[in-house]
Structures are given as structure tokens and as C-alpha cells.
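**Polypeptide and fold**
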Amino acid sequence: MDLRVFTEPQQGATYDTLLRVAKAAEDLHYGAFFRSDHYVHMGSADGLPGPTDAWITLAGIARETSRIRLGTLMTAGTFRLPGVLAIQVAQVDQMSGGRVELGLGAGWYEAEHTAYGIPFPKEKFGRLEEQLAVVTGLWGTPVGERFTFDGTYYQLKDSPALPKPAQQPAPPVIIGGSGKKRTPALAARFADEFNLPFTDTETAAAQFARVEAAAAEIGRDPKEILRSVALVIAVGRSEAEVAQRASVLGRDVHELRANGLAGSPAEVVDRIGQWREKTGITRVYLQLLDLSDLDQLELVAAEVAPQLD
């Protein structure tokens, strides 16, 4: 089981804070450091000192780390033109020595678009489909050849399709979501990994089955698409420590036990085992909301991860 650290910097985090978490995650042998891609905080958080851009952040961290993989859950398709995004991700992949993964979604949080003057189109899914085709098409065009795309939303003509990412044939692409028809079909075409955030095992199993069926329908081996989930963590050595971590998140311990990964290390190991058995996942993104709590990362690395081999 691959355990990855997943952060939500829009809730309030500087680049230095994110770098500290990423370095700790690398030192503790987590599989990856991921972050969300948002420009406005949610809920009761104040969001101070303000947003950090996902790909600028990952570019900096790429130069300050050497092993850990880096990526987004999920980059908002509304934030960047696909040609620009292909360049950005390829460059960060080069800067990291080939450690980048692109999670790409349609974008959904209208308030952050309004706050920063970003267009929020009505038709987002069709745009996402074309964005994936453009990004992967640019990366997959051989050096010296040209890429042309004539879509409904995006048109590219005689692009040199440069730069190329360090990873060949391309960085892994992560797609997620709960849509029952179009999302599985999109994952079957483009995804190296399918991720479901903050759901239950029954819902996840059903959606993974839809992705598997969609892949088989187009003649793709469903086993090529890795299954993953994202779940919030509140792990403690004692019940008091678990309760304290839950209170920092403003969540009830019982609710977190039911809907996240909360409790003692043994409880969390058992919970992840249930997820693996019921859904076939091989990767978990641990949503760390208190970015000052590196002790929790150390606890999971020492007492949870070794029992999941």
C-alpha cells in the first residue's frame, strides 16, 4: 500500500510550511507529497496568509527534494489553458528529475473564480476532455513533429509540442470523480490512476467497477488504471490524542472513524485493510489538514505503514 501526504494549502499555508511538510514526508519515506489547487479557503478557516499556486509551489519543492513524487489533487482545468499547463507540468517534471504526476479535474469552486477574475464556464466537462487530449497529445508528439488540435473549445495549429517531460512516455495522469457515465469513460481513455476522495467503500467499489467496465469496453486492460482514495487522518497513540487531533479539525471523533482514518495506529491499519479488501485500492492519500502536526506523520510512518506491506 502506497501512502501519500495530501495537503490543502488554501486553508492557510506559506510555501515554507509546505516545503517543511514535503521534506518531512520524504524523510519518512512516504510515496508522494500532493497538494490541492485552490485560490480561496473553505469553511471556517481564514486562509491566511493567502493562496499559493500549485505548480509554482511544486516547482520550488522539486528543487528542494530528491526522491518523493509530487502532484496535484486536482489541478483545476479552468485555471490554465491546456497548452500552458502542458508546458508547466513538463518543466516541473524536468526540474524534479521525473517525479511529477498530474491530477486534472474540471474545476468546481465558483467563488474562487469570481474572487480572482477567472472565467467559470458553464460547460466544464467537455473542456476537461479536450484539455486532457491536448496535454497528453503535446507530450506524446515526437520531437521534431508538430501537434494540431481542432476542438470545440481549444484549437492548436502546428505546435512544436515542447518541452517534453523527463518521464517517458509521460507523467502519470490522475482523474477522479463520481459521475457514473462520462467520468469513467474519460478515465478509461486518459487515466493512469483513478482517485475517489472522501467517500465510503461501497460507493468507491461501484465507481471503480464502472471505470473497469469503461476500460474493457474500449479494449484497454483495466489493471492499467491504479485505484486510490483520499481520506482525512486523525491518528493518535491514545484516545485523548485522537480527540485532540479531531478537535483541531473541528470534527467529531466518531464521524471521523466512520468517514476517514481515525483512531489508534492499529485501528487505521484495520480500516485501510478493509478498504483494500472491498475496493482493490493500492494507494491512499492521507489528507493532513494541520500542517504543523509533523508528529502525526511520524506516527503513521512508524506504526501504520510497516503493517501495510
The chain has one domain: 2-308. Residues 98 and 167 are 5 Å apart (CA to CA).
